[in-house]
Automatic annotation (TrEMBL):
Entry-linked InterPro entries: Nitroreductase-like
Protein name (record): Nitroreductase
GO MF, any single term: oxidoreductase activity
Organism annotation: Massilia horti
Amino acid sequence: MSHTFIEQLAAVGAQAPSADNCQPWTLHWTGRALEVAYASRHPDTNVFDADSHATLLAVGGVAENLSMALAANGVDGAWRWSGGASQPYGELAVSAPLPDTFVAPSGPARRHTNRLPYQSTALPADVLAHAGAAREGGNRTVVLTEPDARECLVQLVRQCAQARFCNQDLHRWLFGSLRHTPQEVAQGDGLDMNTLGLPPGGRAMLALMSSWKRMEALNRIGAYKLLAHTETQLLSAAPALVCVVGPEERYGTLDAGRLLTRVWTELNLAGVAVQPYYVVTDQVNRLFAGTLPAGFDPWIWIAQRDLARLLGLAEGEMLHMILRVGFPAREPVRSRRLPLAQLFTSAD
Ligand SMILES: Cc1cc2nc3c(=O)[nH]c(=O)nc-3n(C[C@H](O)[C@H](O)[C@H](O)COP(=O)(O)O)c2cc1C
């Protein structure tokens, strides 16, 4: 097998999205198949372990990118996922012989997060219909364009964001992810401050919030409500919201990651900007895991009941992700990736 071909294939896989750009994966070429396994990159601040929902979504995204890359090269591949919670998650067996040159698929390198304001112009009906018809396994998309439905979802995001800003673990995780200096950014993971699209005063605000003790004091005078309100302003202004929903189990989540990455990539290829919002899913998961900050359980119960009604969730289904979509007003700074040598190994 061509080593360069497999290396380039792995590099496309690694362009997948992940929570705070934590890139919780490694790829290993066995000589026959590409294995995808978990990598805990910053254990001192990490909140998402190998079997967490956010990690499984990201791994599904790697799988989708790898499938797109094989398709672009006319190569067949067969996925085999491990049972239970074992590692590696699974492997992609690749059919020989491989082409001499690798053709990069157009989607994965174009897909990106845009956290800037979007134009308020409505998106074309065919673009929304295409996004709304996407399916993977038991997962589907729900597109909200009606102002009342969008506002209802925004309220739920606001409620969940309030809980998020009162959570010390999530505070440590966010501030551990931020990359301030060019040297920090050059390491290739985490959230480059320049990708956040912060408004004037935003950096000073973040600096103020960076100490948990100060954050707790600010929260006592209601800062978490103000922050949650600010966090949802762009969401309120978006012409459409796309929700990825489906079964609340391990394989369902891997499929949801595939669907999320496919829909997001196709929207970006159609010139549509995308920003994911994970806060509702995360707080609902924390409700069931018992890791919400004190006092928030009743609020998140209500949020998840209202969410099920709004999105028409059946028993055993959940919201995997919300996407804010719209035509971009400006191009954002793009996030980086870790050097391939840090995540790819080969037995060849
Ligand atoms: C599970 C998951 C949760 C995410 N949550 C958010 C979020 O709440 N807000 C946000 O702006 N981006 C979110 N993102 C986007 C990531 O921050 C982004 O994919 C990562 O920084 C890499 O940047 P890129 O998408 O431009 O390649 C999330 C992505 C994933 C896979």
